[in-house]
Amino acid sequence: MLFNNFFSRPYLGQQILLIFLLLGIVSGVFLGLTPDAALDDQRGTASGNNLEIAPVLNSMTKPIVISDNTPSFFLALSYLVNDRVKFQLFRDGDVESWRQKLNLKELAQNYSNIVVAHPEEDFVNFLNEQYPIRTKKLAGPLIEIKLQ
Predict the structure, then answer these.
(1) Which residues contact 101 (CB under 8 A, 6 or more apart)?
(2) Per-residue CA distances from 92 to 118, 121, 127 (Å)
(3) Is pLDDT at 36 greater than 60 in this prediction?
(4) Where are the beta strands (DSSP E) in 96-147?
(5) 3-class DSSP state for residue 148?
(6) 100 touches 18 (CB < 8 A)
(7) Packing angle between helix 46-58 and helix 71-78, nearest 10 degrees?
(8) Exposure pattern of 11-30 as b/e (b: 16+ CB <10 Å)?
(9) Per residue in 66-120, pLDDT tens?
(10) Contact 36, 66 (CB under 8 A)
(11) Of 36, 65, 76, 78, which has fewest CB within 10 angstroms of its CB?
(12) Are 120 and 135 in contact (CB under 8 A)?
């Protein structure tokens, strides 16, 4: 009799709702107590570096950021930088595209700073082979390049 009353149809919805509510509270407590489960801890990711990169780019007069890395890295960064910061992104490993579309001499004339962000090794090697450049390490995965 007690069993029938506890799981009777009018109270079943309330009991299911109570179970979900309790599971949510317990889950929230465990996430809050576990330091490596923090969803906002992005220190080792590109998004985590954006908070370090953005002020450096914003301090420049008219910079352009070039990279062959994933465009999603730069989507979040674009919301943190001023409108005067421009981006030129290339496909990873597409050397022919780099030759056709990348003109550092023209970029140097039109922009105050040329910055390579999250560079892959093959992209940096390409730049060194094609142009006489000097590199300067800036914040995080940011390298400023100047033509010699």
Answers:
(1) 88, 90
(2) 11, 10, 14
(3) no
(4) 113-117, 133-137, 142-147
(5) coil
(6) no
(7) 50
(8) eeeeeeeeeeeeeeeeeeee
(9) 888 777 778 888 888 999 999 988 887 777 878 888 888 888 899 999 998 888 7
(10) no
(11) 36
(12) no
Higher pLDDT, 105 or 148: 105
Closest C-alpha to 108, from 143, 56, 62: 62
Q: Name 17's Cβ contacts closer than 8 Å, sequence gap at least 6.
A: none
Q: Are strands 63-67 and 86-89 parallel, antiparallel or unpaired?
A: parallel
Structure tokens at 7: 């799981």
Dihedrals phi, psi of 127, to nearest 5 degrees: -60, -40
At 117, list the tokens: 């962000």
